């Protein structure tokens, strides 16, 4: 079959299939349903699609060559000014300083989105430990996030525990959940593990939704206090007798922007700590063991490494980051409900890890920024956002299946004098 | 007997209806090279997998340094000081040569997360010790110049030697080698031969060997066990085995 005929056939199939979906519409006339031709707009869409398919099939080889070329450059090299560790350190300092002064220079809305992005960066980095480094597909990561958020919200509601006390408890509790879940399920591999973790995420959400006496069920928990700066509140008036607010203490006028900035800076500090901790983990015996286990667990066992406890370590550590992120999320929002912890959240976090390149910290950070900022910018596309999201995923899988910045693991080197 | 390092008694392994190993006995003394030979499919590797904890034997006992190890998981057996290589090389191919040896020393490494986060002197010292031991063994097997290469890029013979080095950094008492000479050329086999004897004489460890290369087996073994179709056929010194009509029959068939 020549190329023209095969392109023609493909276009025809598109026309037939699309014709039913786009070209016709059902309208009700009285009690009957009547099939009518659609509006001209939809018909135009249909024909544009048909022409597109025809052209794509006609020039398939050229397109194929183009895509393979994009795929062939396996690893994006870092630009020249980032090669040596000293240069990297200097640039990291610049970026951190830039991030620190960012809130003072930009609008309140931008800072707010940046804070949300930082939460996702933290979640992405945490899941990256589980999926990217240890190679365990976890589809219920949002469950640990929910545990962290509800830990702070509930402790505060029932016992009046402040954010700073609740933060480590939330991390610890999420880690405990990770440990308890991991214990029985880490014998499973690949798909089976994914299904069990998916179930776990849903169980947590449904539990929160139905345990109305404790969690308020679908109504959620409202009026969760914001974090304080060494006891200084960021509200206009102190919440209780004798407490001081931030602006009173420093003798400046009240502005709601201080609170937003403070939350941003706090999120930034949490993210920086996360980055540092994971950076160290990769270079520690446990990080090496994760890598080895991902490659060959039989060889690991033959050398005395206990696969279950090493996987459990990854699972627990990953979960604790979700716990920290969760309690911060609760404090920032001031209101949480099971709605915030649906499966789609897990999917987004996993998408961040895959998009960024499994195991790569810088890649995950960039992907988290892309995944939160782009939807904000694309607000006017409204319901097409999910469509764009899907399209982006498909294109990524075709062109860069290894992610934006695939991991170049730091190799330990033997230095000889 | 008290000076036995490893005593395997009446080892039996049944996969469903298939009796893969039936009543095999093995004894390995300190500083001995013991070989297990037999035709293809005789159940040699199954014996290895049972002893090293990758299979749970149906019956029998595995006593190592006076401890019953039957049914214990593989990683605990490895920690007791009995490590093995594999018939098909199992390296961590995307890690560098030196990292392969660092991972292998996991049980000797400093595990405290806090010490690692803050890079305490104790942590650095522990890491340096691992590095030194790895470098030492790389030198012993002649791979020091490849330390920072990816293990998957090494030549086959080098990968075999790296696998032995990776076992040795765990400081075992018994090294189990599953067909270490498979796929090696005569020169490499000769080097391996020397290495194994050195390990016994200088490190004082025992070696349990599965091998098809009869030159290698007869040259270095202190004791040989012959297995045929899962059943023990003969045991003795190389000279006894070479003269044993049963063994000749199993290998060459009847006249």
UniProtKB/TrEMBL annotation, chain A:
Subcellular location: Cell inner membrane
Pfam families registered for this protein in UniProt: BPD_transp_2 (PF02653), DUF3382 (PF11862)
Transmembrane segment boundaries: 43-59, 90-107, 113-134, 141-159, 165-185, 192-208, 260-278, 312-335, 347-374, 386-402
InterPro entries according to UniProt: ABC_transp_permease, LivHM_N, LivM-like
Record key words, sorted: Cell membrane, Membrane, Transmembrane, Transmembrane helix
GO cellular component terms listed in the entry, alphabetical order: plasma membrane
High-affinity branched-chain amino acid transport system permease LivHM N-terminal domain residues: 4-102
GO molecular function terms listed in the Swiss-Prot or TrEMBL record: branched-chain amino acid transmembrane transporter activity
Membrane topology: Multi-pass membrane protein
Name of the protein: High-affinity branched-chain amino acid ABC transporter permease LivM
UniProtKB/TrEMBL annotation, chain B:
GO-annotated biological processes: D-alanine transmembrane transport; L-alanine transport; L-isoleucine import across plasma membrane; L-valine import across plasma membrane
Assigned GO CC terms: plasma membrane
Record's keyword terms, sorted: Amino-acid transport, ATP-binding, Nucleotide-binding, Transport
Family: Belongs to the ABC transporter superfamily.
Native organism: Oceanospirillum linum
The protein's name: High-affinity branched-chain amino acid ABC transporter ATP-binding protein LivG
Alphabetical list of CDD domains matching this protein: ABC_Mj1267_LivG_branched (cd03219)
Keyword Nucleotide-binding listed: yes
Gene: livG
Pfam families for the chain: ABC_tran, BCA_ABC_TP_C
An annotated Gene Ontology molecular function: L-phenylalanine transmembrane transporter activity
UniProt keyword annotation of Cytoplasm present: no
Start and end residues of each ABC transporter domain: 6-254
Top-level taxonomic group: Bacteria
């Amino acid at each position: 079959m020549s190329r023209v005929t095969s392109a023609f056939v493909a276009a025809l199939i598109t026309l037939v299939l699309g014709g039913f979906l786009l070209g016709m519409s059902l309208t009700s006339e009285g009690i009957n349903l009547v099939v009518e031709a659609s509006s001209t707009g939809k018909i135009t869409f249909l024909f544009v699609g048909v022409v597109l398919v025809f052209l794509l099939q006609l020039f398939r080889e050229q397109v194929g060559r183009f895509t393979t070329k994009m795929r062939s450059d396996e690893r994006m090299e870092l630009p020249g000014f980032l090669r040596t560790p000293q240069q990297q350190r200097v640039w990291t300092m610049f970026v951190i300083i830039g991030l620190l002064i960012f809130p003072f220079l930009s609008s309140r809305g931008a800072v707010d989105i940046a804070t949300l992005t930082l939460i996702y960066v933290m979640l992405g980095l945490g899941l990256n430990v589980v999926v990217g480094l240890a190679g365990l597909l976890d589809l219920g990561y949002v469950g640990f996030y929910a545990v962290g958020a509800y830990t702070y919200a509930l402790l505060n509601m029932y016992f009046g525990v402040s954010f700073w006390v609740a933060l480590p408890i939330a991390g610890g509790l999420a880690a405990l959940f990770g440990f308890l879940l991991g214990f029985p399920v880490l014998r499973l591999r690949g798909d089976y593990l994914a299904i069990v973790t998916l179930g776990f995420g849903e169980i947590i959400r449904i539990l929160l939704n139905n345990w109305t006496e404790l969690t308020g069920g679908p109504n959620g928990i409202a009026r969760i206090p914001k974090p304080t700066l060494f006891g200084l509140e960021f509200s206009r008036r102190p919440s209780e007798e004798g407490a001081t607010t931030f602006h009173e203490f420093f003798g400046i006028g009240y502005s709601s922007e201080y609170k937003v900035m403070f939350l941003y800076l706090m999120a930034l500090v949490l993210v920086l700590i996360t980055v540092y901790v994971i950076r160290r983990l990769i270079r520690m015996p446990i990080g090496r063991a994760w890598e080895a286990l991902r490659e060959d667990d039989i060889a690991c066992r033959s050398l005395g490494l206990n696969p279950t406890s090493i996987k459990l370590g990854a699972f627990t550590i990953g979960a604790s980051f979700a716990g920290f992120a969760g309690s911060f999320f609760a404090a920032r929002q001031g209101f949480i409900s099971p709605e915030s912890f649906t499966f789609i959240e897990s999917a987004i976090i996993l998408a961040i890890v895959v998009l960024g390149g499994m195991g790569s910290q810088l890649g995950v950070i960039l992907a988290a920024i892309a995944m939160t900022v782009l939807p904000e910018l694309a607000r006017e596309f409204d319901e097409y956002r999910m469509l764009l999201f899907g399209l982006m995923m498909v294109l990524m899988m075709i062109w860069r299946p290894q992610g934006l910045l695939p991991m170049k693991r730091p190799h330990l080197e033997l230095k000889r004098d | 007997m008290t000076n036995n390092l490893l005593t395997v008694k009446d080892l039996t392994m049944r996969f469903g209806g298939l009796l893969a190993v039936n009543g095999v006995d093995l004894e390995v003394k300190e500083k001995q090279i013991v070989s297990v030979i037999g035709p293809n499919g005789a159940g040699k590797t199954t014996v290895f997998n049972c002893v090293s904890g990758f299979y749970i034997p149906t019956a029998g006992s595995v006593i190592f340094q006076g401890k019953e190890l039957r049914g214990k998981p593989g990683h605990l057996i490895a920690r007791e000081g009995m490590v093995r290589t594999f018939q098909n090389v199992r390296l961590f191919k995307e890690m560098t040569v030196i990292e392969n040896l660092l991972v292998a020393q996991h049980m000797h490494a400093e595990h405290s997360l806090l010490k690692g986060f803050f890079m305490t002197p104790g942590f650095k010292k522990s890491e340096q010790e691992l590095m030194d031991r790895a470098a030492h063994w790389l030198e012993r097997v002649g791979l020091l110049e490849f330390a920072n290469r990816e293990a998957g890029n090494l030549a086959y013979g080098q990968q075999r030697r790296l696998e032995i080095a990776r076992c040795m950094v765990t400081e075992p008492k018994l090294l189990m080698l599953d067909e270490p000479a498979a796929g090696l050329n005569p020169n490499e086999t000769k080097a391996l031969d020397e290495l194994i004897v050195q390990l016994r004489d200088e490190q004082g460890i025992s070696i349990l060997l599965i091998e098809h290369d009869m030159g290698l087996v007869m040259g270095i073994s202190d004791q040989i066990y012959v297995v045929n179709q899962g059943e023990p056929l003969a045991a003795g010194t190389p000279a006894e085995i070479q003269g044993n009509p049963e063994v000749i029959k199993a290998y060459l068939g009847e006249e």
